[in-house]
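Sequence in, structure out.
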Amino acid sequence: MFAKLNSPLRRMPFVTATAALLLGAYLLLRVILGFYEGYANSFPDGWQFLDPLGMIVGHGKPWWLTIGVHLLLTMALVIAGVRRAIDAGWSPWMGLLMALPVVRLFVFTVLAMQPGAAHTHVLDLPREGWLGRILPRSKKGSTVVAVVFTTVIVIPFGFLSVEVLGDYGLALFIGIPFLLGVVSSYVLSYHEPRSIRESIGVATTTLFIVLMIIFLLAMEGLICLLMAAPIAWAITLAGALVGHALSRNEQGRAPAIGMLVLLTPSLMAFESLERARAPLFNVVSTVHVNAKPQKVWNSLVTFSHMDDPTELIFRAGISYPIEARITGTGVGACRYCQFNTGPFVEPITAWVERDLLAFDVAALPPPMTELSIYKHVNAPHIHGFFESHRGQFKLTEQADGTTLLEGTTWYTHEIWPTWYWKLWSDNILHSIHGRVLEHIKKVAES
């Protein structure tokens, strides 16, 4: 496997070496997470290890070991993938897809099924079989059929993941888009070779239509679909490249497509049985207040009604705070933060006047109202997938007499890959923090 990078690697050595690497990586990640973070009973979300800064900052992760192991693993998988792609007659660049967690499972499956380049090329063999008889040969006809055929496959898989299994996992956001890209570009080029640009075009069109169908069936709202679109398109693009390459060879393509179709629900079943433990994240936002800590504290504990939001994110459906009140004083008191979707119930756990107000979250409202043409969209992720666990306000007096007001929220979300959805959730929480902190600043400085 570690021979010259441009030397072909035949199927069986590739399957043996890569399967051992993938299994070893999986077991090693479970050991690392189990030892350092107590994740022993859940499969690791490999995408979270793409965040080197998060590893270095802390959270108990052995960042030096994790990064080192993953760099070595990724290099070995890429080398194997490049050499196997060369043996299959594909562009060596296709092997780089082996660097992507989860995606590499699908790429590995295709490369394992693909015969060597010595087999007959697609242009030298006639197309036969039932699929070839029903697929049109014209470019326009094959495009339409590719879109329809792929949609018929992936929509039920999405329904199974979300509505039946209640799982917003890697199979949903990685497996299904990758399968969408492979199948659409493969069907498009079944009778005649198409350009890579045409393969990407039909895959992108199919993805857009699938997202529109999900919206029209009231399975999701517009905001969530817009959030999911960037990662879905990126994975669909990778799938389109694989489907394009797969269509160039007669031998091995049908078994490869069949295995990919089966791999997606298999990954769903695995995720539903091996539920990943949601990581605990924290978001910290700060604002400088031109007032003494005591005045800021008074504005904090006597929280008045806020103006209606003007920010697009809140007007689009993300829930936002309206007002807050505290019943009692000191530890044991309770803070009620009213959002437009309902109240947060927050028992006070720390009360240090002028310095710190901390609380747990005992009850919380839905995090958003779906933006849709329908009056109500009951997407499962609205209930229980995003949870705030605790928060605090910290006041620090500055040398010039002003106050640094810091708001922190600790939360979890069970939507994968975590690194991608954390980008959205952190930004949303910063917006909520900013609305609250700016209101306190405005009152304290008045």
